[in-house]
Design a protein that fits this description.
Two copies of one chain form a homodimer.
Chain A (H helix, E strand, L loop, with lengths): L9 E5 L3 H14 L11 E5 L6 H7 L5 H13 L4 E3 L9 H6 L4 E3 L1 H12 L4 E5 L2 H6 L1 H8 L3 E2 L6 H14 L3 H17 L4 E4 L2 H4 L12 E4 H13 L10 E3 L24
Parallel strand pairs in A: 1-2, 1-3, 3-4, 5-6, 5-7, 7-8
Helix pairs in contact in A: 1-11, 5-11, 8-9
Chain lengths: 271, 271
């Protein structure tokens, strides 16, 4: 169905969320060792933002997102891709059933993230900043433990509340406020004794370059991890993300869309 | 060929160049008035970086890029899109033949850019930072004149050389050096009496947020213009790009890949 001269090699299921997939596509491109256009990966991003909310489905115990995810996988296979990437951690809850029905290999973001953690440290305590759906799904806990790392979870509800706020703020386009919420969660993680923090939700990858609290905590970005894994599997040279995209904090142009709701104040644990 | 639940409405021909299309996709997403994933445009980016060089083809008088561009248009039509965007100005040399063979409307970047110029000023002198291919193609000169603006072209060869350097540097991933070259070209444009500068090559859109010389010259970005035009035609709310992606200048991580070649020194006209 596609002319061989323009056949993409990598298929990307995007829109989950939209900024997260834009961030992934930017990082994939920026990390490719290339000096000219034609040294880059021929790819296709199929953005399906109308998919039902993944975390809601997992918590409610239904498979609403599976059928449209499967449709996206089928379309990408029809376009002739060799590999598929889903820059959405939560969607990997359905990985097994999607992979079983795909000719193209789906590169698992959890495997990519654990490889990325190993690039940064050999042992220690890892905290995962993820959606409640990803946590319930459990694929990260298994992988991190199996790799010999210890899982670290800050006590109390505030840690996850900050993460939930940050993710919602990214989806609403308020990157600056999302970065503050993420920094609060990272602060709580450090107080809880974490050595490294995994941004195990690609919405949080969007704020990775805007974080100011990374000096005393190793931060691992699941979008960067997935981009590196894709380039490696495709046989392309991968380099460190040279000047990753950041979002400037323009005064008055990046306010929270909510009057009440997510707080952008420092956590109760103190600075 | 595609499940209706995930049918994209906007098709994007990407990879021309790769960072330029990543920048476009990021800006399109960032400019969409949305608070949740499902309020975003269902879209597909078909990245075809292996396409023959557009400027080389135009200068040599052949149509090498036309067949793969037509194949991309056909694929996007088969995926059911309503509109197509090409975030590459030079590729619009073949707009007429592509549009004639597409059910989906191809949104012309030149029309979008002139609309964007009109948002910023009512009359004045416009300088176009474009590839030599786009300049030979001539579609901008016609549109800018027809809209009542005066075209401004700095004398001497340095202006276009700086632009050529900047474009090549973006393609090689050296954003910081590309920004310096672009600033040099903008400086020459200001000396030549320009009121506004059009970044009429989407590779230059990548450096738009990194420019430091924009205070005394209105800078119009063709990627932002095309993103706004797409959102408007699709019936989506468009807002100013809130905190557009910028590329941080990390010391030692963004050096020029060439030992000789493009200069990153200030132009002969003096600062």
């Amino acid at each position: 169905m596609i002319d061989e001269t323009i056949r993409p090699r990598l298929g990307i299921i995007g829109g989950l969320g939209p900024l997260a997939s834009a961030d992934f596509y930017f990082k994939l491109t920026r990390m490719t060792e290339a000096l000219r256009d034609n040294e880059h990966v021929p790819a296709v991003v199929l953005s399906v933002p109308q998919l039902p909310d993944r975390t809601e489905a997992i918590l409610a115990g239904h498979d609403g997102p599976l059928a449209p995810l499967q449709a996206a996988v089928s379309t990408l296979n029809a376009l002739g891709v060799t590999f598929i990437a889903m820059p959405c951690n939560t969607a990997h809850h359905w990985y097994g059933r999607l992979a079983a029905n795909s000719r193209a290999e789906i590169i698992h973001i959890g495997d990519a993230a654990v490889t990325e953690i190993r690039r940064s440290l050999g042992h220690g305590r890892i905290v995962n900043l993820a959606t409640r759906g990803t946590l319930v799904s459990g694929f990260y806990q298994n992988r991190i433990s199996a790799a010999g790392f210890e899982l670290c979870l800050p006590v109390g509800s505030e840690f996850q509340e900050r993460i939930d706020n940050a993710i919602a703020l990214v989806k609403a386009g308020s990157i600056a406020d999302a970065a503050i919420e993420t920094e609060c969660a990272l602060h709580l993680a450090r107080l809880a004794g974490a050595d490294a923090a995994l941004l195990g939700c690609t919405d949080l990858s969007v704020v990775a370059a805007s974080l100011n609290i990374t000096k005393r905590l190793i931060v691992i970005d699941s979008n960067t991890a997935l981009a590196r894994a894709c380039l490696t599997r495709l046989g392309f040279g991968a380099q460190e993300a040279r000047g990753p995209p950041t979002v400037s904090r323009l005064a008055g142009q990046d306010r929270s869309p909510w009057r009440a709701g997510p707080r952008a104040s420092w956590p109760r644990g103190g600075r």
